[in-house]
Structure formats: C-alpha cells, structure tokens
Task: inverse folding
C-alpha cells in the first residue's frame, strides 16, 4: 500500500515513522508513507495557504488552490488513491472501517488546520471525511497518525501472526479479556488458576466470559451489535440477573 499525507507539518509524520512498528513495517516494504508539505504547492508569492472566510466568523480557512494542486500532484502517480480528509464532522473510525481501508491500493490523508478548509475542496476531491472521536484537535496530523496506525495493523505482515486481531478489543464488538504474565504470584496478587491449568477449553471459556463481563461493565453499548453465540447470551443473561 502507498500512503500519502498532505500536511503543513510533514516532520510530525516523518518522525513517527522513524520509530517502532511503523518504522519496521516501512523498512520491510509492507507499505510506504510519504509526507508532502501543502505550502509547497501554494502559488501565493508568500506561500500563503489561508484566508478569511466569506460571511465572517472567527479564524482562517485553508484556501482551495494549494489543496487542489497537492491532491492532483499525488493523483498523477496514484490515480486510484482514496482521498481522506480528517474532520470532526467525518465518519468515526472503528476496527471495521480500518480493516476496509487497509484493503485499499493507495490512501491520501489531508490534514486541515486553522478553522478548517474551503468546502469546495471537500465537495470536489474528498472521498472520505474521517474522525477519530467527538472532539476537536488543532490540526489533522495526530488524527491522521492514529488512523494510519489503526489501518496498518490490518496490513498482512505488520503484526506478524495473521490472526492476532481475533482476540483483541472490538472484534465481534466485544472488549478484550484481562491478560497476565509471569510471575504467577506477585506480592500475593495471583493469576487466576484457570490460566495456569493447561486446560485449553476452560481457558477459552474463561476468556470469552471475561470479554462479556468487560464489555457489559465498560461499553454496554457494544453488546447491542455484538456477535454472541447461544452460550454467550446465556452467560450474559446469567450475570444480568445476579
């Protein structure tokens, strides 16, 4: 996959992919990331990229020309790239959407700043308006990095084991079960006996029941669409009636 990021602060993007899992994945050639400075595409003699909004209002808006030209530049080499604009008005990112985007041939993220961007850019060139939550950030770079991080985990080879997602939070719309490591007894705090029993069926049952409990306690809204078996529903009914 090819990923482009159009931003006023390319160093933020570049620095992230110099570290940890993202850096390893790029080095292995699992995907490419290129940050481009929107200001480099400005035709203003001072490389200005913002102006006051028509109709008044606080703040400044990013002007259409640098945005249009930067996207068109990317499309010259990646004509099928999907243009994603990070916006609090966008569709909220979740695991399902991240998995879908990971199947794309090319993604181009556009990071807004100031009070936003000229609507004509969104209407004409943006394929997906994307949000990471119901709050507003000072710019789109952090939201873009969060989105790329979530997406790249579904690119084959990034995490190693291909089925590693299956037991994580939000798979089947349930939260992940609690996990423990050595020592089994730390200052009197003991790991649940079932996890050291070696009985795999009992361990799987314990893990699934803890997933249901965690979701009921912390994110009961997820249970409305969770994929529950008959045994899951029976357990949920049991704990709801105790």
Result:
């Amino acid at each position: 996959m090819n990923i482009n990021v159009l931003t006023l602060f390319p160093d933020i993007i570049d620095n992230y992919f110099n570290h940890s899992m993202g850096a390893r994945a790029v080095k292995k050639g699992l995907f490419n990331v290129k940050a481009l400075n929107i200001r480099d595409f400005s035709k203003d003699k001072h490389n200005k990229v913002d102006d006051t909004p028509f109709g008044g209002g606080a703040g400044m808006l990013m002007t259409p020309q640098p945005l249009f030209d930067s996207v068109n530049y990317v499309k010259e080499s990646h004509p099928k790239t999907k243009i994603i604009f990070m916006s609090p008005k966008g569709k909220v990112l979740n695991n399902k959407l991240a998995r879908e985007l990971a199947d794309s041939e090319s993604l181009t993220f556009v990071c807004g700043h100031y009070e936003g961007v000229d609507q004509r850019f969104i209407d004409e060139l943006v394929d997906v308006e994307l949000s990471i939550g119901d709050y507003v950030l000072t710019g789109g770079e952090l939201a873009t990095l969060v989105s790329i991080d979530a997406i790249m985990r579904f690119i084959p080879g990034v995490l190693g084991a291909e089925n590693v997602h299956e037991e994580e939070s939000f798979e089947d719309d349930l939260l992940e079960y609690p996990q423990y490591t050595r020592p089994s007894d730390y200052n009197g705090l003991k790991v649940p006996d079932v996890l050291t029993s070696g009985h795999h069926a009992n361990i799987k049952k314990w893990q699934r029941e803890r997933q249901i409990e965690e979701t009921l306690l912390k994110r009961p809204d997820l249970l409305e669409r969770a994929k529950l078996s008959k045994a899951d529903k029976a357990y949920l009914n049991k704990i709801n009636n105790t």
In short: Strands lie at 2-7, 32-37, 50-51, 61-62, 82-92, 106-110, 128-131, 185-186, 189-190. The chain has two domains: 2-152, 168-240.
